[in-house]
Amino acid sequence: MIMRIAIPTEDPSGLEAIVSPNFARAPFMTVVDIDESISASAQPNPYAQGGGGVGPMVAQWVTSLGVQAVITPSIGPNALGVLTSAGIPVYTCPPGIR
Q: What pLDDT is attached to residue 96?
């Protein structure tokens, strides 16, 4: 069974990408699939440059990617609510790590 995790990142370099400090404003969302092996693909965040209140839209988009967990340094309450309602747990990590 594949475990799919979303991580907001600053660049599209997959597993080597730098973790972005903010979930909704990250330029990319790196989706990591863990099975017998680990693979990653970076998806450009279509809402990264949007106006205020994009958190829920990013959370809905991430949900549509079929993720089962999110790892992020920071997430707003509205985005967290969308993910929680979808049954997707959110875990924290420090920003800037690879």
A: 82
